[in-house]
Amino acid sequence: MTRAIERVATPTARAFESDYLRPQQPVVFRGFFAGQDVERIDTLEQAVARLGHVRVPVNQQFFRDFLRFGDLTTHRSVEMTLREYFALVAQGPSSDLGISGQPTPVELRNALRLPDLCYYNCDVSRIASKWFVGTSGSTAHLHFDGDHQHVVLYQMVGRRRVYLVHPRWSGRLFPIFYASAVMLENCPEEEKRRWLDSVEAWECTLEPGDALYWPPHYWHYIEYLEPTLAFNLRFGRGRTANLLNRLHPDAYMQGIGSKLVHDDEAERDWAPVVSDLEAAHARRFATGFEKYLHVRERLVEHHRSVCADYVPLDCCVPYQDAEERIMKRYIALGYYYAEEGDAPVAIPNPRAASASGDGWPREDEPPGATSRVSR
Ligand SMILES: [Fe+2]
To answer: Structure pTM?
Structure first.
């Protein structure tokens, strides 16, 4: 059966760590930004009045090209203001149009004071935030995030239904890179429910003011029930996760990463695995693709022992061709494993840009003490 995600008052950092972060359990926090201005931006009218001037790249669903062509680097966007976007979708055009994973506008970010729990294991400058805008009928395809970070998703406006699946079930999700080949968006409701039950999915309907925490590596699938604005906060990547983040994300990495979230546990239980992956990262190859094949071989082997209690990933074999094709493109773009034998390309690498640090000052920090990315 699916499980309803619990709703609680936003806890202290210590209670968050013991009750949710260490057990890797999703939860919805209420009062996450209690008393702050952002709480009052809870209707479409308020959002358009406050942020309607912000220019945003609008594109078709982020995973559309991936599902059609196996490539996330080809989607195209059209720039417009947020006001223009909501006026457009109010006329009833395709629910494919949305704003997905763009940096949260500076005026919104600067107005936020983050609860202490966001600073878990985290350099202030590494807390990142993206925002998501869409309309009724939009979906976020079933996928996991490859950045090994904890996530809080804050729902400002509208309602969205979120389903989460633990990485132990990946063997039933037919992963291609970090997306699933399971097309929940095309399933009749009853069929979708049956499948979600079979992987013990968590679910909740987010209302304005809800802040959903999910642990790193969780699969997520999201349905937009109304025009929506939301943003996430991504934080807490430790030493081991930083190493894994420099390698490529696939379902083997996802499983291993989910067991190595906490440095103390990784060092206690899996030190030889961490050392071996460090060696794989340091080793030089003639081309990035050769390095990818080597790292994948190490991940496949380690997954058998580290994730012995997970559903086996045998189902991935038919999808290796697709993954290899995607990796070749990502290596050519400089996302992963740039080696001396790879021809340099003049296309900017958005992954590197987004990793350059974007954070908030703490309450006790003098203005300007936190480095900021200019956008
Ligand atoms: Fe995601």
So the answer is: 0.88
